């Protein structure tokens, strides 16, 4: 009797394996090189190749990646409480309108670059913006492999103005906007700001374009969450009359909103929890980015084409204190847990180089 039960279980397991294999059977794409679980995804492979070569300079984690991620955010978060906007590509479809909104100043360059590639392919602006964000992020070592769902319709109207959080907004205002836009929790807001680990500021102070938010803008790592908690000084030459833009290191800029979120009681412990926790940062960012990318869309009507996104290179280096700094330089706001133990980089204090191509 026992033998018969074991045989039955083995037969069931074999049947389930064969069923799953049938469900995940891949189809050959017309390009003769790729396969996909859904034929609709085949059309994306040449688009990915085109954007890697002609938008991301052969697959670099550079300025166009930073700007493409900014475009993802500015397009998606512009969703009104009564509907309209969201991740629909309106920032490109209505480029002359939306890129003139104060919060979107400076996005016209990347929007127009992407529009040129969109014109070559059968893809909507909303899908292209999200695809470019995911593909570009994959060029940065340490990044998670982001999800991508295909099927956003063409935007029919420009998103309303005033919906994109700005660097000098209060924490109250930022958290309220994210909650209104898509029910984002404070922890999810912190997770989305992991994008600043591979970002730079071009327009906060136009006199210092390409100024990074951390000392390692070419890698998706937790260094950003360390350096925003360091005691900063006023950034020399800032164009902000209130002197609110601070930087802990020469050549680096700190957004006031980042500084405030790192120290607010609602977000400080989550912020600190990413320090030297690469896997947590990756997983939280991936989940929050998927949620952002679907704002204003019905996921059940879309096709999961995440398989077209390249697999990012791994990154295992531990976070550190910059040369000359230590735990004594941390402006710790989380009182629940101690700040992680970090080593200090050797050598003299150096200036962080601007991001090339800015």
UniProtKB/TrEMBL annotation:
Gene coding for it: MNP3_4
The annotated active site, in chain numbering, is 74 (proton acceptor)
Metal-binding as a keyword of this entry, yes or no, is yes
Binding of heme b occurs at 196
Q: Where is this site: Transition state stabilizer?
A: 70
What protein am I looking at? Peroxidase
Q: So where does Ca(2+) 1 get bound?
A: 75, 86, 88, 90
Q: Which cysteines are joined by disulfide bonds?
A: 29-42, 41-305, 61-140, 269-334
Example GO BP: cellular response to oxidative stress
- One matching Pfam family is Peroxidase_ext
Molecular function per GO? heme binding; metal ion binding; peroxidase activity
Which SUPFAM superfamilies does the record associate with it?
Heme-dependent peroxidases
What are the record keywords, sorted? Calcium, Disulfide bond, Glycoprotein, Heme, Iron, Lignin degradation, Metal-binding, Oxidoreductase, Peroxidase, Signal
Source organism per entry reads Cerrena zonata
Annotated cofactor note: Binds 2 calcium ions per subunit. Binds 1 heme b (iron(II)-protoporphyrin IX) group per subunit.
* Gene3D superfamilies, alphabetized: 1.10.520.10, Peroxidase, domain 2
Identify the residues that bind Ca(2+) 2: 197, 214, 216, 221
What is its cofactor?
Answer: Ca(2+); heme b
The reply on keyword Glycoprotein is: yes
EC number per UniProt: 1.11.1.-
Family to which the UniProt record says this protein belongs: Belongs to the peroxidase family. Ligninase subfamily.
Q: Where is the signal peptide?
A: 1-21
Region Disordered: start-end pairs: 337-358
